[in-house]
Amino acid sequence: MYPKWEGRCFGCGSWNSIEAQRNSYDGRSSENRLVLRSECVSSYIEDPEVRYRSGISELDRVFGGGIVQGSSVLLAGEPGVGKSTLATQIGSYLASSGVKLLYASGEETPGQIVSRVKRLSPNSAFSLLCTQDLGTLLSELSRDDQRYELVVVDSLQAFSDSESTLSAYGTNQTRANAQALSSLCKLKGITLLLLGQITKDGSVLGPKAIEHLVDVVAYFERSKEGNVRALEVHKNRFGSTPEFAEFALSSSGLELPPEEPMGVNSGGKVAPGRSYVPISYGSRYRMTEIQALISPCYGESPKIYAEGFEVRRLQMLMAIIDKELSFSLQSKVVLLQVVGGRTIRDQGGDLAVAAALVSAATATPIGMDLCSFGELSLLGEVRPMGDALARRSFARSRGFNTIVSNVVDIDGVEHVCDSLVQALDAMGLHRSGLRAIG
Q1: Which domains occur in the chain, in start order?
Q2: Could you read off the pLDDT of 240-288 as tens digits, one per residue?
Q3: DSSP designation for 262
Q4: What strands, in cross-sheet order, belong to the sheet with 127-130?
Q5: Global pTM?
Q6: Distances from the Cα of 49 to the Cαs of 65, 233, 255, in angstroms?
Q7: Fewer CB atoms < 10 Å away: N or C end of the chain?
Q8: Distance (Å, rounded) from C-alpha 167 to C-alpha 173?
């Protein structure tokens, strides 16, 4: 098929053998057009929402209470992170609950999958299809004698259409795979779980190529803490976003990690440059430690290094500190690290980052029972946060008695630090005679 006139056929090499043909479907023809009429929304009957429980409470929580029946879910992650393990674990649990399940793999042999199933759930029983042909998979899902309720596709980019000219593992073929599978599964009422690989540039099978075709988008990431895996839901038509959960990967599958100790600060020591902040991860909070190190340049050009925190936001916070305290942090070597390999995207960590920087710059430690949170404005203001009371309650449950923020308690007691200078003063980092080192 050629999009325009060509004199020579690229297939057989003959000249003037290409004939123009009209498409079998013409969208402007009334004979082939489906008759659709608008109806009032009140005339539609709402379908009852049925959710599949995965057997992992934290996974069900981040999905909004479970996987909605008939929905399409994209689980994306880099190779080797544990996507197949998680999908096998979910499939085995649902199959044991009576769900008719098909596991379609385009990257593994039946022996590899069976070995993993026996290791994770020896008593599970579900259908297995190992092929890379998209047409074979669609034909299997269309069988009326099977009536599958859930299908796992591992992984999406491994499938190709033998009748298509699109190249396998390409973005266009992957988009076509997702569209064909999603359309058929919605027509049949089959729940679709797609496993997608993260490319070298960090995108899911291309630049957001298929996220609009699915109902739920979840990223599965490898944490720097050994066997810990993080699952973050970025899109969910049936629940809130973002949501975050952590799992421990072992030989028996994914498990809930050990609970965070009540006093995370009990093992540390008082040292300049350390601060704590309760960070929001969806509907959960986690006490996070921030460390900062500042040293003179000694003739070198100023350098800024941040691990787990956006460099441009760090530069903005340094400029605010220089303006409010007459420091010169931007002329020094500044290193900032979020302990544990996590990444702070919550702007409520601004105040704690600023406190760590000032503590390191003045060689003044912050009390180990003190934490802080709040977003900083360019004018040096500490903006109040909508979930401030929940953060304070969480911090107290973790053993922090002093919480510096801009909030009013339920009882009406004010703990308002509406400026950076006032907040630093409450932490003992702003007093007469205190100057930046170097």
Answers
A1: 51-255 (3.40.50.300), 274-426 (3.30.230.10)
A2: 888 888 888 888 888 877 665 544 544 567 889 999 999 987 778 889 9
A3: S
A4: 127-130, 101-105, 150-154, 191-197, 72-77, 216-222, 228-236, 243-250, 253-255
A5: 0.75
A6: 11, 20, 27
A7: N
A8: 6
